[in-house]
Amino acid sequence: MTAQVPDAPDGGHGRPVPDATVARLAVYLRVLTELRWAATGPAAPLGHPRTISSADLARLAGVKPANLRRDLTFLGSYGVRGVGYDIHLLTTGISAALGADRSAPVALVGLGNLGQALAGYAGFGGRGFRIAALFDADPQRIGRTVAGLVIQDIGDAGRVCREAGIAIGVIATPEHAAQPVADVLVGAGVRSILNFAPGVLLVPDDVQVRRVDLALELQMLAFHEGRRADPAPTGVAVSS
Amino acid sequence: MTAQVPDAPDGGHGRPVPDATVARLAVYLRVLTELRWAATGPAAPLGHPRTISSADLARLAGVKPANLRRDLTFLGSYGVRGVGYDIHLLTTGISAALGADRSAPVALVGLGNLGQALAGYAGFGGRGFRIAALFDADPQRIGRTVAGLVIQDIGDAGRVCREAGIAIGVIATPEHAAQPVADVLVGAGVRSILNFAPGVLLVPDDVQVRRVDLALELQMLAFHEGRRADPAPTGVAVSS
Question: Which residue ranges does the record assign to the CoA-binding domain (chains A, B) (predicted)?
């Protein structure tokens, strides 16, 4: 990797980047990675473009072009007017800015269907983390291998996380187990938790919890579908 | 349900609601529903409050209070200055506005670990949709029952979706199967697709695709964790 984030005359180091921009940068990185894969994979057409316009990248990422251009000012200048962005350079630039070339170890707790799906998720490579340890409380699961890792006893999580320097935990347990698991993880030094279980977790102020609600996107789709089926509703209207 | 969305002097019917507001309304609804459950469940403390301040609701939803107040103007007025929002009234108001009291039928394709987790997801009730049909291509899965529904042959999806009036599909297949499955769903009249598989789907312009990237939130956490471990980075800084 020779790419680096350049000094940015229009961006500048230390300028605070809003969370929304960080999230969109991650989406651009995913889109660009998929484009690069398409351009080099077995099905790649000859002469596949090496650049992408801001309009095309914005469309593929589902954001407004103005947002894209503003987001990229935080990285410095990667675009050439009339030519667009070099896909390889922009990919490595965003990757470095997001720290996606690092590999923070992550503990995953709860190896039911969701946990197994997460452990084996193909989209986790090159995103700045790696699943480093699996835990469950079920004796029938402990000792089994999932995605190349042996499921360990949640009772050993404190020692294992401390020894491996794990600071990020994923909770994919049923709701009733989520709080005790969070307590174990926090006691083991975990400072960031991604929670897939319903309900609110109580943690110390210096621990960050992000909640993934698998129903949210489907709820949005159902809402829009309802608007389509009933274009003159009594409730709210939606801009596109 | 006697609740309705009142005529809103400060909001007004037909005023376009931004997608971001729709998404946040869905988050408020989830938080309020969880609060109501906590207030009425077996562990409910006596005298649990029936109202919530905008500051508390904003904090639980992870949004800025100013955003919350602006979002709720689209519904009309549910708050009383100095008292806060009545949890029950606000819940039913948002629910009606989002159409969460409807129940749009959804087809789920791909009953691997992720699909099974989705089919059995506890957080799907009262969100405006219901999983109505399951499909897979694997003969070993077809005919099995998951979450009360029999897995059907993807080859029958066209007929089943048309007969059941299914307009929303969820793709939880491996990446290579996602495009052919999308083609089948679109041919069956599906107009909204939620895609959990990596990669870009090609669909007609009048079909809406939303992509769920299970890595995104974890990438955000890893990014923030990297900032904590290395507070003087060469890349971008983040506002809190």
Answer: 99-200
- Residues from chain A that touch B194, judged by Cβ atoms under 8 A, are 217-218, 221
Three-state DSSP string of B69-109: HHHHHCCCCCEECCCEEEHHHHHHHHHHHHCCCCCEEEEEE
Shortest Cα–Cα distance, A155 to chain B (Å): 24
Q: Considering only the top CATH level, what class is A104-216?
A: alpha beta
Give residue limits of the domains in chain A: 19-98, 104-216
Distance between CA atoms of residues A207 and A182, nearest Å: 10
> Which one of B31, B113, B222 has the shortest CB-CB distance to A168?
B222
In chain B, residues with a C-beta closer than 8 Å to the C-beta of A132 are none
The answer to whether B113 is annotated as binding is: yes
Q: In chain B, what residues touch A167 (CB-CB under 8 Å)?
A: 225, 229
Q: With a CB-CB cutoff of 8 Å, which residues 156-195 of chain A face chain B?
A: 167-168, 170, 174-175, 191-194
Q: Do A212 and B217 touch (CB under 8 A)?
A: yes
Residue B227 in 3-state DSSP?
helix
Q: Which CATH number fits domain A19-98: 1.10.565.10, 1.10.10.10, 3.30.420.480, 1.10.3210.10?
A: 1.10.10.10
CATH topology match: A19-98 vs A104-216: no
Per-residue pLDDT of chain B (240 residues; tens, 9 = 90+): 333 333 333 334 556 778 788 889 988 988 888 776 655 544 444 445 688 888 889 988 888 889 998 898 888 766 666 678 888 889 888 888 888 778 889 999 999 999 999 998 866 777 888 999 999 999 999 999 999 999 999 999 999 999 999 999 999 999 899 999 999 999 999 999 999 988 788 899 999 998 888 888 888 888 888 777 665 444 443 443
